[in-house]
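step: validate -> pass
step: tokenize input -> pass
step: predict -> running
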Amino acid sequence: MHSLWVNKTDLANAEWQHSDTPELHDGQILLAVEKYALTANNITYAVIGDGFGYWNFFPTGDATRGIVPVWGFARVVASQHADIAVGERIYGYLPMASHLLVTPGHVSAAGFIDSAAHRKGLAIIYNQYNRLGSDAGQGEDERALYQPLFTTSFLIEDVMHQADWHGAQAVLLTSASSKTALALAQVTRNLSPQIKRIGLTSAGNVAFVRETGLYDEVLTYDQLGSLDASQPVVSVDFAGNGKLLAAIHGHWQHNLKFSSLVGATHIEQRKGAGDLPGPAPILFFAPTAAENLLKNIGPAEFRTRVDAQFNAFVAAVAGHLGVEHLSGEQALKSAYLEMLANKVAPNRGLICHIG
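step: predict -> pass
step: emit ->
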């Protein structure tokens, strides 16, 4: 077994660790990780891991080092559970590692939760695993790459929609090239077409973002000042850049109707916002929004709504986002460090094979 351990306070300090295969107890299964998606979403898990408990899902036993969570596919390679057979495949929340020991609970034909003691009390959305049978299905790469962050985007639109977009006429999205921002633009276009979609991105990504056709307007960060500050907007900040956030608040001031923080793709610039005019920024936490919506409409309707929008998003970006397959410890570590440094081009979708 091997897993990539990262220093919690120095995320670029990462090394593969090797260990013996664990002995299974009654009711447990051992999953071999087949492949996972690597996106900026995973970097966010690491950046805010201490504050939101992301390090707690796959503990290392070392208080200073953790394993970054990812979304992907795994196969049961050993089972001491009567209802789950060797050879079965699952999709869900996995460690950046070759294996995961799981204690399935609430087992049904559709899936199960990991009821291991250390995962009790953690957000249920991350403890659920889907059962897939024994064969690989279609669209798995896209599911791993887009679905977790897409669900976040779907929930942001829903929360904004329920609040009547706080009286705004437009939504400003930073890191407009990120998959989560693209997904939010797509869902907003479909479900809130009256809201103008403005994307901010770096100069090198402007052409790509415009080509997707998901935004009404796309500008570089240094063109922020040219936007109409009299138009009421809501801001959804995916970048985590304190100076940029301060510029947004300073430009719109009281016409900034809501300021939402989601993720952190530029981790070296998270500080620097200082005291901000306008509304206090509020961190969006997808699990809480998901639980609230699930209570209101039920899991079946929730899944139906998300799937309908997800399929539309996959179709919308099919010609703009490519999938790359990586394998081997060195390649996977290098990919993680590239993503951490925000050096992965937005049109690249990385699928990592542990092997």
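step: describe -> The first helix runs from residue 40 to 47.
step: cleanup -> pass
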